[in-house]
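Notes continue from the previous slide.

Worked example: a multi-chain complex. Inputs as given:
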Amino acid sequence: MKKVHYRRFDLVFTEGMPGDCAYMIDKGRVAIISGKNIHGKHKVLAILHKDAIFGEMALIDEEVRSATAFALDDCTLSVITHKTLHYLIEHEPLALTPLLEVLSQRLRQTTKLLRDAMKLRRGARSAITAGKG
Amino acid sequence: MDDNLTTFYKGEIIFLEGQSSKCAYIIDSGRVGIYREDSFGNRSLVRTLEKNDIFGEMGLIDKYPRSATVIALQDTRCMVIERSRFDYLKKFNPHFVASLIKSLTEKLRATITRLNKTDRESKSTQEEKTVLPGFFKNKGE
């Protein structure tokens, strides 16, 4: 797997930029923040440590990055491209366990949000019906 | 592998949301429905799965309870994959891992699409903005 190094406070990727790979942390910590401008208002979504995977959505839907990632320490990251993914599937499937875990977790979180959204919609509809009645 | 096959009859509940996860299933024949319940207990069909589809795999991956309820829509024959077999396949069968990633990815995509659609609908239903500005803008990568 290709390794990349980032110095403390280097940007790994920025929200809104196109992306086609995910990263796994070998060394150091990475902060995930939201907000288009890291100098402006932003929210820290997560601080990730060794073995954490991030940026995996780009492997899935190849859409733009939905958050900004920057190095909190001097970091070494493994780059997971489509090619790496297919190589690992064929030769080292167990190495993909963290990716499976992160996908599963994200599916659970998304499902929970969907459930909340459906509840909200139902609530909004009944409020409107009640208003008309 | 025949001894791992089990049959669920039409209408039979295969597992319930919230139960602990002990195995995954691959459909050999028949059809199942994936249902989710909201906090009012309303059960809605999320999707149907058919031959060669896998379900129940999330619990084996992350060891959390079942995230949905699965009910047989027809008489359905499934291959049961216990944890030990799951770990074995993960280690030695690349196609199994590939199909796991594909299956999770498809489910995730479908859920994101539904979430975005529901989000838009609730925004147009409600005058005021909901507290859901889109998951992946907020909590994504």
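Summary box: The two ends of chain B are 40 Å apart (CA to CA). Chain B touches chain A through 47 residues (CB under 8 Å).
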